[in-house]
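Dear colleagues,

As part of the handover before I leave the project, I'm documenting each prediction I ran so the next person doesn't have to rerun anything. This entry is a single chain, and its sequence is reproduced below.
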Amino acid sequence: MALKATITGKDELFRRLTQVAPNVAKYATEAKRKAGDELAEAIRQRAPTGATLEYMESIEADELANRPHQERVSKAAAKDPTAVGLFAEYIWRWLEWGTAPHNTAKGGGTVLGQATHREGGGTQHPGTRAQPHIFPTYRAMKPKIMKRIRAAVNKGVREAMNK
């Protein structure tokens, strides 16, 4: 006896699932929002603070559909209309990954600027050490987030099966 299987994408699977259990999308969206808010709060707790708390307070979770003009990490738009993302001030990259020492004078990043610095001109920025706070927190919380979304989907399916 041969086993036959058809490979479908996530969109097709979710469309079929919502036909069988219409509340799945509602519960999954709630779970994603709640998980996004918890992740944003956890990252805020680990975020570096400077003279002000501006950066830390700028970290928030929101649905990608609510921010169509916001800069995205990837070029492609999210296929999930209820996808939740994290948003923060643009300096998050420099804080997360750090910066190398560099010349801050006008034209300092050019070959001429680097030669000027070697001769004693220009101003050298020492660089900043990496202060990882986003990705380590996400990696630590990812199993909990996935478990919460899976439980929400199962709740919608169980509800549909009991009708």
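The mean pLDDT is 86. The CA atoms of residues 65 and 81 lie 6 Å apart.

All the best with the project,
I.
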